[in-house]
Amino acid sequence: MALLEVNIQQAGYQINKKTISDIHFSIRQGELMGMIGANGAGKSTTIKAILDELPFVEGEISKAEGGKLSYIPERPLYYQELTLWEHFEFVAAVEELGEDALHYAKEILRQFRLSAHLHKFPGNFSKGMQQKGMLALALFTKPDLLIIDEPFMGLDPGSTKLLLDLLEEERSKGKGILMCTHILDTAQRMCDTFIIIEKGRMKAKGQLDEVLKQCGATDGSLYSCLEVEVEEDEE
Ligand SMILES: Nc1ncnc2c1ncn2[C@@H]1O[C@H](COP(=O)(O)OP(=O)(O)OP(=O)(O)O)[C@@H](O)[C@H]1O
To answer: Which Gene Ontology terms cover its molecular function (predicted)?
Structure first.
């Protein structure tokens, strides 16, 4: 059964003004889908439509009943007045997660090598540490479906490897993952399926060979699925 079913006819930031259109896909248990597209193609807008954060959506987006979704934004968002650990306590309270969850949180934070920073304010962390903190917070709620916008941004090689391993582990537990990324080599290696967005529309979707075929990419690389746009100089 699909964890997420997306059928967007059109959607955007103003009523009746479409930024994206004709985007249809679903994510099943244990599926890692890469969402690929140039800057401004409409990836984040698609995610906003899924998260019900757009004023205008025509179509239908449905989640599996009882399915828990966790979203990790491209830019980390923290409460200024809370330490990292207080963020975990806050989420645990809001989601009614209980004492066991806080043990699990400590384990994730240890894996991410953030244990020494529990009582510091994440707003002062380095970019990579902030990103890892967000990931740890998202995994902590044990979601069925993870939506991640540019997860590798700012991560050092060790943390990138850790994230790849963690995503693999989550996938093997049957989680569905939708990941937006510009790191195409990694996406190509690890994703089960892809959706290519171009100028607000879905250009291709499916497994790598299907997507490459739909894009007419003959060199076997996702890079050729993206149109290179040259911005004209203003006269
Ligand atoms: N809050 C907003 N209000 C109005 N238009 C927006 C808003 N955010 C994005 N857009 C527009 O929507 C279009 C798609 O942008 P979107 O952020 O979805 O692209 P993206 O594929 O996520 O790009 P990137 O790879 O740069 O993150 C762009 O033309 C952008 O200017």
So the answer is: ATP binding; ATP hydrolysis activity
Establish whether residue 21 lines the binding site of ligand 1, counting it when its CB lies within 6 angstroms of any ligand atom: no
pLDDT tens digits, 39-73: 999 999 999 999 999 999 999 999 988 889 999 98
Probe residue for ligand 1, chosen from 17, 45, 149, 196 as the CB with the greatest number of ligand atoms within 8 Å: 45
> Distance from the CA of 42 to the center of ligand 1, in angstroms?
6
Q: Do the beta carbons of residue 158 and residue 14 sit within 8 Å?
A: no
Report phi then psi at 204, rounded to 5.
-160, 160
Residue 230, pLDDT above cutoff 80: no
For the chain, the distance separating the N- and C-terminal CA atoms, rounded to the nearest angstrom, is 54
In the CATH hierarchy, which top-level class contains the domain 1-68+145-156+174-235? alpha beta
Give the tokens for residue 101: 């969850």
Domain with CATH 3.40.50.300 in the chain: 1-68+145-156+174-235
ipTM above 0.85, yes or no: yes
